[in-house]
Amino acid sequence: MDKLKINSWYQEEKYGITGWDFSHLDGRWQNEVLPWNYRKLVLSYLKSDMQLLDMGTGGGELLKTFHHPNNRTQVTEAWAPNIDLLKQTIVKQGIKLHALPENHEADLPVKNNSLDIITNSHAAFDPQLIKDKLKSGGYFISQQVGALNNYSLSRFFDSDYVPAYPDNTLLKTVVNFQKLGFEVLLAKEYQPNMIFFDVGAIVYYASIIPWEFANFSVDHCLPQLNQLNKLVEIGGSISTKEDRFMLIVRKA
Hints:
alpha/beta, globular
């Protein structure tokens, strides 16, 4: 195997990510467009006088595109590097940050019945907490990564892999909200293709998504990476299936 190529994989493994910015993969992967647009759906419900909380906001990249008044916007975040970034960006603009402990991503440290709308893109949540914090008639809008996201690729690297969040499915989520008396306004799911055009891109992606690639490293997975490299040389790409679902519910 080409030592230069393997060295480049080691570099990809160490590259890291800031916020939730995948620009390092520009031109090196392709994501199938979903049959819905999360941002447009949020904006169709979000009004300027609403009290908004964005859960697991990452680096605030998506939140900024909502252009919601800063004094009516709150966010939660549990990853320390993102928290540090947010303190230097949106917090200075007047947005309230609730910095959460790791593994407490679903927490909502705000007053009960205080929010008009809670948005959530790919973050954990607790339906009961959502109900507690929303005002009557308030909305919860979420796009989620389903249980089987990248399942085949994760199993390729680790034959013992099982989904980290096996219950994160549209069916179970809808039922949980219905049991709490929520009105379901939208519930859709889709399994889009995600295509990588070089193995280094896969290494980078796997290294920053540890919940799907828990035992991944270049050293540990070198035989599989070499196999993937041969497939890229033959076919030009490697594809995997993502798992997404979209949910909009209203507190009765």
